[in-house]
Amino acid sequence: FNIASGMSYSVLEVINTIQKIKKKNLKIKSSEEIRSDEIMDTKANIKKAKKLLKWTPVWSFEKGIRDIYESS
Asked: What average pLDDT score do residues 11-34 get?
């Protein structure tokens, strides 16, 4: 079973979410270089867990990151 959100987030979205939670606005440096064989997007297929386990994500990505940050 894939237990995940079923959503895809870019590196920039992850960085922006963390900066929002930490109330920071640091400059992001990126070469924007696309490397050969790099996977540009991926997400877990959670249909099987939803169907057989009646499972659905409860937390948003931001809430999960916020909870991790606040508990450390």
From this structure: 91
